[in-house]
Amino acid sequence: MTIDEAISHAREVAECQKMSARLIEDNAYIPESVDKEAITYGNTICAKEHEQLAEWLEELKQYRTIGTPEELKAAMKYVYLAKKNGTVGQVIENCVKYEEIGTPEECKAATEKQTAKKPDYEGDGYSDGHLVYDTWICPCCGKHYEVDYDDYDFCPACGQCIDWSDEE
Ligand SMILES: [Zn+2]
After folding, report:
1. 113 CA to middle of ligand 1, Å?
2. Of all residues in the chain, what percent carry a pLDDT higher than 90?
3. Nearest CA-CA partner of 166 in 126, 128, 131, 133
4. Rounded to the nearest whole angstrom, what is the distance from the C-alpha of residue 149 to the centroid of ligand 1?
5. CA proximity to 119, closest of 160, 149, 156
6. Which whole-number Å values give the CA distances from 50 to 7, 53, 58, in the listed order?
7. Assessment of whether the complete model's pTM goes beyond 0.85
8. Ligand 1 mean position to 124 CA, how many Å?
9. β-strands 120-127, 144-146 pairing
10. What residue segments make up the domains of the chain, in order of their start?
C-alpha cells in the first residue's frame, strides 16, 4: 500500500462511517425510543479518527518530500555552519581553505616528512674488512639511492626530509 492509497483508504472509511451514522439518524423506521445518537456514536468517532489519520498521512507526505530524518539532520549541520560563518558563501570559502590544507591525515603525513629522518643503509661487499654501504634507503617510502651520488635533502620520490647528520 502506498501512502496515497492509505490516505484515500482512510478518507473512504471516514465517509463510510459518516454515511452509516446518517442512515441511522435518517431512518424513520427506528422507533423514537431508540437512542440513535448512542448507536451512531461509534461511527462518528471512527470517522473522526480516520479523518485525523488522513491528515497525518498528508503531513507525512510533505515531510517525505523534504527528506529523510538523516538528510534533515545533515542539512541542519549546513544551516548551523552558515549561521556560524555568517553566509553560505563564507562556509564554502572556508571549506575551500580546508581543502587546500588537506585532510588531518595528509597534514600529519606532511609534517612527519618535514621532520628529518635518518636514512637506512644497505651495503654490498666488504672493503678492508669493513662493510661498504653504497645504498641509502628513504625511511619513508623505501626507495633506494646511491650513496655519494644521490645526495638529496628531501627524498625526490616522497618528499621525506633526510637527516644526514650522522654521515661519516
Ligand atoms: Zn621517500
Report:
1. 9
2. 43
3. 133
4. 16
5. 160
6. 9, 5, 12
7. no
8. 21
9. unpaired
10. 3-66, 71-101, 103-168
